[in-house]
Each structure stands twice: as C-alpha cells, then as structure tokens.
Task: structure prediction
Amino acid sequence: MLPDLKEIRLRRKRFNLTQSDLASITGVSQSLIAKIESQQTIPSYLNAKKLFDTLNKLEQENVVKASDIQSRKIISVKREDPVKKAITLMGKNSVSQLPVIENKSCVGNVSEKSLLEKIISFEDISDTKVANVMDEALPTLPGNTPITLLSQMLNYSQAVLVTENGKICGIISKSDLLEAVAKKR
Result:
C-alpha cells in the first residue's frame, strides 16, 4: 500500500525540488505531478510508485548516519592501566569517557561520572587499576545506523562505538551528536 498522495508535495518540498525536478528524476510528467498535488487526478499505481520510490530513495541518501559524525580517533585505556592514566587522557583530550579496549573489543568504560562516584569509596583512586572502576562496555552499532536511532541510544549511554565489518572504527559522544545537529541547521 502506498502512502497518501498528499505526501508527494510535502516530501518534494522537503528536498527543495520543483515539480520539474521531480519529473526529470522519476520520468513522470511535470503536469501529472501538478495535477496530483492539486488533487485534480489520481495517478496510476505505476506512476505513484515511481514518485514514492524516488522520494524514499532521496530520504535514504539524505539520512545522517553514525559514520557521518563519528570520530575515528578513539582514545582508550586497558583494564590494567592505572586510573591516573585515564584521568590524564581525559583531561589532555577533553573527553568525559574512555572505552576500555582489549583484544580489539570494548570490555568496559571509564567516565568522569563513574570516577567521581568511586572517589567516595577509595582514598586515592589514582593508583587503582581501571578494571576496579570501570563501568559496563559502551554499546556498539554499525556505521549505517540512522541518527534517530543513535540519539535514542545516547539517552542511555554517554557514548557509542561505531563498528565496520565487526571492528571498532569510531566513537560518538552526546556532544558529537549535538555538534553534528548544530552544523546541519
């Protein structure tokens, strides 16, 4: 079942396409598009499908994906590293969390928040091993994940790791997502 024909005009305008632009992309005449949009005619199923298929394809091409906004520079620590190293790396690189990576897999996460919570339990956590203060691993998602799903995941995690062919290739924090949205506007 195809969407409501009124969607054609709305979606065409969303892409800043004229009726002529849409006509040349789809092979459907501009006059037919004008008649459809003014509700003067109902197109054949084939012509309506051409229009919706083209608009769907344009939407897929224009969706911002995780791979578009990821940072490929992944600053990480290992379980056996001292917390002091993690704190130094966070400060030096202006990041609020670090994935704990071993054997090319994320096994945990160290964040400013978790470190502040742990300070209450330890007198001096700087010499403590990362393994003693780390939280659960950051979630991973493929690079083609749309920004809408990415934003939902970041409601529950400070950052997400981006994978390509099963390998970690990037990281996205909440601030990375907000920066990407600000640039798009």
